[in-house]
Design a protein that fits this description.
About 55% of the residues lie in helices and about 10% in strands. It is mainly α. β2 (about 60-65) and β3 (about 70-75) form a beta hairpin.
Length: about 120
């Protein structure tokens, strides 16, 4: 991933509502979720939701498809992986203990279908 694409993705995620949408779609899995369901789950009003989905889509972090009268949104796991790899590319700098917590999260993610990561709790 190039720096410009990483900045675009990070900028798209640098908003509480958009981050909530993206995390919800990551947890939802490949089946995705309709816009109305996203609004109900997040409490985001329709105009704000539409804007957030558009920004996430332009950042290449989510996809959409039409199913009947609904538009279904899904997280682009490949782009998420690219972004995480970009951020971790130079991780540790010779000190593997720095990245050990991240390795634990990745190992946990590899052992589940994505639902076991919700909610992610961060510790200082």
């Amino acid at each position: 991933m190039e720096s410009k694409a990483a900045v675009t993705a990070l900028s798209a995620l640098a908003h509480e509502g958009r981050l909530a949408i993206f995390r919800l779609l990551v947890r939802t899995g490949q089946g995705g979720m309709a816009a109305g369901e996203i609004a109900r789950a997040t409490g985001i009003i329709p105009n704000t939701l539409s804007s957030g989905l558009n920004i996430l889509s332009q950042a290449d972090l989510i996809d959409s498809r039409r199913e009947g009268r609904s538009i279904i949104y899904t997280a682009r796991y490949g782009k998420m992986t690219e972004l995480l790899a970009f951020l971790m590319d130079d991780c540790c700098g010779g000190a593997p203990e720095v990245c050990a917590p991240l390795s634990d999260i990745l190992a946990r993610a590899a052992e589940c279908d994505g639902t076991c990561l919700a909610p992610l709790e961060t510790t200082p």
